[in-house]
Amino acid sequence: MAALDSTRIATTGSFGLVGRIGAFFTSVAHAAADWNDARVTRNVLTGLSDRELDDIGLCRGDIDALADGRR
After folding, report:
1. Mind listing the pLDDT tens digit for each residue in 8-61?
2. Domain extents in the chain
3. Are 58 and 66 in contact (CB under 8 A)?
């Protein structure tokens, strides 16, 4: 005997055009949040003195790579 489980909630998101549009706006929002996080990190690290950067094991040349998540 076959049974249909109709109580499961789809975890993969919506299908079709509406789902793709929602996924697009979600990805844009995530990209904007990531950009803002990198901007804030870069501004805070740039505001530190060379001595403070040295205390945490960084130099001025490391700031961009660290803010962009490459390190």
Report:
1. 555 555 578 888 899 999 999 999 999 999 999 999 999 999 999 999 999 999
2. 37-71
3. yes
CA distance 29 to 36: 11
**Token pair in block for residue 35:** 């950009």
Residue 41: CB atoms within 10 Å: 15
Q: How many CA atoms lie within 13 A of 55 on its CB side?
A: 6
Please state, in angstroms and rounded to a whole number, the distance separating the CA atoms of residues 62 and 54. Answer: 11
**H-state helical runs in the chain:** 16-46, 50-55, 63-67
d(CA 9, CA 12): 9
pTM, two decimals, is 0.66
